[in-house]
Automatic annotation (TrEMBL):
PANTHER family: BLL4998 PROTEIN, RIBBON-HELIX-HELIX PROTEIN COPG DOMAIN-CONTAINING PROTEIN. One of its GO terms (biological process) is regulation of DNA-templated transcription. Residues 49-71 are annotated as: Disordered. Signal peptide: none annotated. InterPro entries: Arc_rbn_hlx_hlx, Ribbon_hlx_hlx. This is Transcription regulator. It comes from Halorubrum distributum JCM 9100.
């Protein structure tokens, strides 16, 4: 899995950390960031679909919607 680096304001990181760990929704920051990106991309796809801007040949960003093929 590729790694990326991003700069995040301290306040935003503190908010993220409230959802990470034993009492949080996510095991670690990476899981939280991946879930946030997926959700944001899904929302953008929904907006594009409402405005007929989706390319039918483009793969969906929805989690679990991509199908693997044996080609």
């Amino acid at each position: 899995m590729p790694k990326i680096s991003v700069e995040i304001p301290a306040e935003l990181l503190a908010d993220l950390d409230e959802h990470v760990g034993d009492d949080g929704k996510f095991v670690n920051r990476s899981d939280a960031v991946r879930a946030s990106i997926r959700k944001n991309l899904d929302l953008l796809d929904e907006i594009d679909a409402r405005h007929d801007r989706l390319d039918d040949d483009a793969p969906s960003t929805a989690a679990g919607s991509a199908e693997e093929t044996d080609e």
